[in-house]
Every structure is written in structure tokens, then in C-alpha cells.
Design brief:
By secondary structure, the chain is mainly β. The chain contains no helices and eleven strands. The chain has strands spanning 2-7, 10-12, 18-26, 31-39, 45-51, 57-59, 67-72, 77-82, 91-99, 102-105, 109-113. The protein is globular and about 45 Å long.
Length: 115
């Protein structure tokens, strides 16, 4: 089993920044993809950003140029740097990793962008 622990969410004003972290632990073989999703109230869970083990990234159009995903393979940790935050970025953010082709999910961390 792989466990994920997220941190870094909170309340921030529009235009502000937050950095989310997610560390995987447990019976890890070799994590390939690491990603962040988000889910706003009453909406589906959508992909925000994904990063491969080699560092290739892909972003949702709504966050391109504002968010940056990165990872530390030795620490099994993925980060999401969020800048120029907007009220529409308000959601529960979930990290997910793939190990031996099986997905694992974190418990989610709330991000609220409001003045």
C-alpha cells in the first residue's frame, strides 16, 4: 500500500500564492506519474497538472502560466506552486500517484481564494 499526505492548502486573497506538497510513503516500487486534481463544490474532479518521472509536464489550460508542478523522486514528493490565484481556483486539491500501474489518492487539501 502507498499512503499520500498532502499539505499547504489554506485561505489566500486573489492574486496570492500557495504551494501544495504531497509525499508518498509505504510499499513504493517506482512511482511513474504524479499529478494534482481539483474538485469544486458540485463539479467533477478535474486534472490540474501532471508530471512524469522524467520531468515532462502537462497543465490544464486554466492554470497554464500560473501553476507549476515539480517533483523530488528521491523523496517521492510532488509539489504544486500556485501563483496569481483566482476565486475560481477554489477547490479541494488532490494529489495522485501511479505505482506499478495502480493509482493512489491523497485525502485532499482545501484551497480557498477569497478577499
Amino acid at each position: 500500500q502507498v499512503q499520500l499526505v498532502e499539505s499547504g492548502g489554506g485561505l489566500v486573497q486573489p492574486g496570492g500564492s500557495l504551494r501544495l506538497s504531497c509525499r508518498a510513503s509505504g510499499s513504493i516500487f517506482s512511482i511513474t506519474l504524479m499529478a494534482w486534481y481539483r474538485q469544486a463544490p458540485g463539479k467533477s474532479r478535474d486534472l490540474v497538472a501532471v508530471i512524469s518521472r522524467g520531468g515532462s509536464t502537462n497543465y490544464a489550460d486554466s492554470v497554464k502560466g500560473r501553476f507549476t508542478i515539480s517533483r523530488e523522486n528521491a523523496e517521492n514528493t510532488v509539489y504544486l506552486q500556485m501563483n496569481s490565484l483566482k476565486p475560481e481556483d477554489t477547490a479541494v486539491y488532490y494529489c495522485t500517484v501511479s505505482d506499478l500501474g495502480r493509482p493512489y489518492w491523497g485525502q485532499g487539501t482545501q484551497v480557498t481564494v477569497s478577499s
